[in-house]
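Assess this:
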Amino acid sequence: MARQLDEQIAGRFAVGRRLRVLDVGMGQGTQALRLARAGHQVTGVERDATMIAAAREALAGQPEGIRDRMRIVEGDGRDTGVHFLPGSFDVVLCHGVLMYVEEPDPLLAGLARMLAPGGLLSLVVRNGDALALRPGMQGDWAGALASFDTTNYRNRLGLDVRADRLSTLTAKLAGIGAPLHTWYGVRVFTDTAPDGTMPPDDLDALLAAEERAGRTDPYRSVAALLHLCGVRG
């Protein structure tokens, strides 16, 4: 996903430009820190105290220049309008968040409002068109059959959450003024790997295969996650 995001940033903005980045639901700050290290001015929004503590600890271990480029805001992603003016950011990230939001439309509209004209919106969501694949690959036939006609599922944390279909999100992005520019699959081959699995010796080859599959039909359409990139008109 990081490679996909970098590709979109490189294709849309001038080399060396320091971008204003908003990471909504930043978690422990992995992507926010990565982009701050790349020279961008990053604001991370997170409401979970444990995640905020982890992000602040990680940030504290960075050189001063990187610490100065990253700001952490404690808050809900649905309240971006409370904290920021419309059009304040060149790039807005919302990765792994929509599945926890029962009604995502207000959140998506708020994210789009944060973008400057020509800005990039990056979403990572659970693929609602491929929910049967994981249970099917694991031999859970009843679970696979039950997954065909729903966008609800239970994640690996044991939480009941929801997925999004590509067609539905394409329509929503058009409706909020940030139409879909391109999309990728994420975790095409590795979704069924058990949690805690150690990286293989040929990790570079694995990443190359995942990256290729994530941009190639029909593989990307059955990925566990979708990475959608919209552009503010």
In short: The chain has a mean pLDDT of 96. The chain is about 35% helix and 25% strand. The beta strands are 20-24, 41-46, 70-74, 89-95, 115-126, 152-154, 160-162, 180-186, 225-231.
